[in-house]
Amino acid sequence: MKHNITVYTTTLCPVCRMVKDFLNDSDIPFKEINVDIRPVTMIKLIGKTKKLTVPQTNINGEWISGFDPIRILNAMSVENDI
């Protein structure tokens, strides 16, 4: 199953770096959106997640806040065909 993973970050966020390093080290492809340079995207992100913090990771529609490798892996293992 191909996963649609997007990580919303800011430039100086150390936790954002941890999420990106985890995904890169695990050879998991993802798209990064830096909300520092996209303020409208940040407003939309807050509306979707109800959180003011980054990183916010979206995996196939599931939102994961912060650095939570267990939840990231669990979100990827969910089979939507069941």
Please name the defining characteristics of this protein.
3 helices; 82 residues; 4 strands
Describe the structure.
The chain is α+β, with helices and mostly antiparallel strands and about 80 residues long. Helix content is about 40%, strand content about 20%. Strands 2-1-3-4 form a four-stranded mixed β-sheet, with helices on one face. The longest helix has 12 residues, at about 15-25. The two termini are about 15 Å apart.
Mean pLDDT over the full residue set: 92
* Tally of contiguous helical segments: 3
Secondary-structure class: alpha+beta
Fraction of helical residues: 25-40%
Compute the number of strand runs. Answer: 4
Order of helices and strands: EHEHEEH
Major sheet attributes: 4 strands, mixed
How far apart are the termini? Answer: 13 Å
Sheet with the most strands: spatial strand order: 2-1-3-4
From the alpha carbons, calculate the radius of gyration and give it in angstroms: 12 Å
Uncertain segments are none
Strand proportion, as a percent range, falls in 15-25%
Give the overall shape, derived from the CA principal axes. globular
